[in-house]
UniProtKB/TrEMBL annotation:
It holds the Pfam family PA14. The lineage of its organism: Bacteria, Pseudomonadati, Bacteroidota, Sphingobacteriia, Sphingobacteriales. GO terms for biological process: carbohydrate metabolic process; glycosaminoglycan metabolic process. It catalyses: Hydrolysis of terminal non-reducing N-acetyl-D-hexosamine residues in N-acetyl-beta-D-hexosaminides. Residues 236-250 have a biased composition (Basic and acidic residues). The active site is at 347 (proton donor). GO terms for molecular function: beta-N-acetylhexosaminidase activity. It comes from Anseongella ginsenosidimutans. Residues 638-773 form the PA14 domain. This is beta-N-acetylhexosaminidase.
């Protein structure tokens, strides 16, 4: 039986509070309780509890942790409402005392066993508020929900009403995490604390701190001072996608061991476990610049200025490497109470090992058949050492290659296959796939967004993620322990941009991680979002201001389009233009729905900005309204289902330039798949006849890595060309019932590869199965 990881936060006191709200939107019933993440059970009750200066807070006298939480609750009301509530310790082992009213009770007496370690119950009645849990951590989470029941605008010294409600709540997953990459950019201790605050506020319990990287070593190791003397500073930084574009300003910074202890203690008080990541064997150039003798070549090395994967990694054949890492990890283990240490394991090129006499000698001595097994040997040695420190390891899914260490947990990032494989081997898994959980990817149209590494992970996609793969049996699914969002920082150079990239996507993640699958509902989440974002705006969080609800590109056959917009931040205003000029606070203010006249062949562009109550303004968000005529169906009736393809192996510049005069391979596939085409680089042309079941407006989308273009009836419909990571392009067209020719051209330049086509009709769904034919 494999050893299981126990992802638990150490129980201490709560030291912070959050602004609170009841979101009010025209789609939300007045008085409806809105909490993020969505509770397991929530029922509205009759009446309200009125909080006034005469109210009291009672905490279980047997628990100093609850007393501390009660003190912070009282401090919150004092700070935000000018109400100074008296705090009283009262033994509550027999339950809430009868006859005591106008009070808030925090107690671990009488909590249901089914709540587990992190669950809570919250009952608001006209006479009292009671929060029960089996642990102070559960009480802490109940208090976070209570904060979200309070009115958004509290007047100093005035009583206010809290709606009566009954909540029973507990988390779905035990690992609810966010990763911040401090290796590429250093962030201050104060900002790290703020980052942790907002995790805890939304019931996230794991902060994965990426502390070492090719581009920076950020943790003081007393035995090896050159790690920070040399490895914490680089003389410049690539600032765009071009390696030629380098800012020559030095970037430097690291955390002293005293600062590490300070952050760990701060997180502990908020029930957040800090999991450090020390990368090995790859992503280690900062360490090798300081100690080049630990490499296969002996160096010397310079700190890199530009992004990408480096060939030089720790030498697996050198015993000094393991002595060094054991010394480093001994100091790390002493600093972090977390049972788990992340050891990286990703993106470790094997070229140096293949050419290294020491590594080859190690492979021969240990009976290892290839360099993947050598990496497995490396990771297993590290795991065995950390077990002497009572620590477990977790690594990126590459640690599966060559054989998984006996007790290692896996963080699945290259899709879900790594998580599936690990779970089937009875190893714990944290799901963190790039397509859903990489918050360094664009969250809107790239032309309106700050520079990002690529990709496209909008808010709805984060929310849609299901961490438990359908391929797993119930027994295997038990090993899916949680989910995590990642903020990689190649192009995130400031705390403000970290917040912009993380939020509001982290709010969606909090529901994926905490809420029961049956409790998740994206339309309801969007109803809750305006009030929650208004509270975060008031607190100064630099979240991305979402596009107004209803602002979407539209293709229609009608002469007029109805425009209805709603801001996704309560109290925000929308300003717009329709003449092509850039909107601002002096432009026309959106007040009510209106109709936009359309001319065939001449798209109308609606440009908007959203202005928050704080004065912060969004990017310019644009929707294009296009009137099109129906495209006639072709006069053919193919009978054989499938997609024909022709492929050529070799490097091709762009998808649109593919001209296959002589194909290296060809045939018929079931869909637009690349799985049978294993060689790379390559270019491929697919052709099929698409069956439109009825006269309707169809939206075709292509997600590809690298470029793809799509033609419908020989007219360009989608252009998603060029070398890039997984990026989506789409096109919408009215089609008559019948068959329409699709030609899809795609090229893979190497690295990642992905190709996926989807189609939606006006109802929002149109599976391609059974709709593609060859003639």
């Amino acid at each position: 039986m494999k050893k299981k990881l126990f992802f638990r936060s150490v129980i201490l006191i709560c030291l912070f509070s959050s602004s609170a709200l009841i979101a009010q939107d025209r789609n939300i019933r007045i008085g409806e309780v809105l909490v993020i993440p969505e509770p397991l059970q929530l029922q509205m009750q009759k009446g309200d509890f009125t909080l006034s200066s005469q109210s009291r807070i009672y905490v279980d006298g047997q628990s100093p942790e609850l007393k501390a939480i009660g003190e912070q609750l009282a401090a919150h009301f004092s700070l935000h409402a000018g109400l100074h509530l008296r705090l009283t310790n009262l033994p509550l082992t027999g339950g809430v005392p009868a006859g005591v009213s106008n009070a808030i009770f925090l107690t671990m007496a009488g909590a249901a066993d089914s709540l587990g370690e992190e669950g809570y119950s919250l009952n608001v009645r006209p006479e009292s508020i009671t929060i029960k849990a089996n642990t102070p951590q559960g009480i802490f989470y109940g208090v976070q929900s209570l904060y979200q029941l309070l009115p958004r605008d509290l007047r100093a010294g005035s009583a206010f009403a809290i709606p009566s409600v009954s909540v029973i709540d507990k988390p779905r997953f035990v690992w609810r995490g966010m990763m911040l990459d401090a290796g590429r950019y250093f962030y201050s201790v104060d900002f790290i604390k703020k980052f942790i605050d907002y995790l805890a506020m939304h019931k996230m319990n794991t902060f994965h701190w990426h502390l070492t990287e090719d581009h920076g070593w950020r943790i003081e190791i007393k035995k090896y001072p050159r790690l920070t003397e040399i490895g914490a500073t680089r003389e410049g930084t690539q600032r765009s996608h071009s390696r030629e574009d380098v800012d020559r300003t030095p970037h430097s910074g690291y955390y002293s061991q005293e600062e590490i202890r300070e952050v760990v203690a701060y997180a502990k008080q908020r029930y957040v476990t800090v999991v450090p990541e020390i990368e090995m064997p790859g992503h280690s150039l900062a360490a090798l610049a300081a100690y080049p003798e630990l490499s296969c070549t002996g160096g010397p090395f310079e700190m890199p200025l530009y992004w990408g994967i480096r060939q030089d990694i720790f030498c697996a054949g050198n015993e000094a490497t393991f002595h060094f890492l054991e010394d480093v990890l001994s100091e790390v283990a002493a600093l972090f109470p977390s049972q788990i240490i992340h050891i990286g394991g990703d993106e470790a090129p094997k070229a140096r090992w293949k050419a290294c006499p020491k590594c080859q000698a190690r492979m021969k001595a240990e009976g290892l058949k290839d360099e993947h097994e050598l990496q497995s040997y490396f990771i297993k040695r590290i795991e065995k050492f950390l077990q002497t420190k009572n620590k477990s390891i977790i690594g990126w899914d590459e640690i599966l290659e060559g054989g998984l260490a006996p007790n290692a947990a896996v963080m699945s990032w290259r899709g879900i296959s790594g998580g599936i494989a690990a779970a089937r081997q009875e190893h714990d898994v944290v799901m963190s796939p790039t397509d859903f959980m990489y918050f360094d990817y664009y969250q809107g149209k790239p032309e309106t967004e700050p520079l990002a590494i690529g990709g496209f992970v909008p808010l709805e996609k984060v929310y849609s993620y299901e961490p438990v793969p359908a391929e797993l049996s119930p027994d295997e699914a038990r090993f899916i322990r949680g989910v995590q969002g990642n903020v990689w920082c190649e192009f995130i150079h400031s705390p403000e941009k970290v917040e912009y990239m993380a939020y509001p996507r982290a709010l969606a993640l909090s529901e994926v991680a905490w809420s029961a699958a049956s409790a998740r509902d994206y339309p309801r989440f969007l109803q809750k979002l305006p009030g929650r974002l208004a509270a975060l705006d008031k607190e100064g969080l630099n979240f991305r201001i979402p596009e107004p609800a209803g602002l979407e590109d539209l293709v229609t056959t009608k002469k007029k389009a109805r425009v209805r917009l709603d801001p996704l931040v309560a109290g925000a205003e929308i300003f717009y233009t329709i003449d092509g000029t850039g909107p601002g606070a002096g432009s026309r203010k959106y007040v009510k729905p209106f109709k936009l006249s359309l001319t065939s062949g001449k798209p109308a562009r609606l440009k908007t900005v959203v202005v928050l109550p704080s004065g912060r303004t969004s990017s310019v968000y644009t929707a294009t309204f296009t009137r099109k005529t129906y495209r006639p169906a072709l006069k053919i009736h193919p009978e054989e289902q499938g997609v024909s393809f022709k492929a050529e192996y070799g490097r091709l510049p762009l998808a649109k330039d593919i001209q296959l005069e002589k194909a290296d391979t060809s045939g018929v596939l079931g869909d637009f798949g690349i799985e049978p085409l294993s060689r790379r680089p390559m270019g491929v042309v697919y052709e099929a006849y698409f069956l439109a079941a009825k006269d309707d407006i169809y939206t075709f989308s292509i997600r590809s890595d690298d470029g793809a273009v799509c033609y419908l009836n020989d007219e360009l419909l989608i252009e998603n060309d060029g070398e890039h990571s997984v990026t989506e392009g789409a096109g919408t067209v009215p089609l008559r019932k019948g068959y329409h020719k699709i030609r899809l051209q795609y090229f893979d330049a190497g690295g990642g590869r992905h190709l996926e086509m989807r189609v939606k009709d006006s109802s929002g769904n149109y599976p391609l199965s059974g709709k593609l034919f060859v003639n």
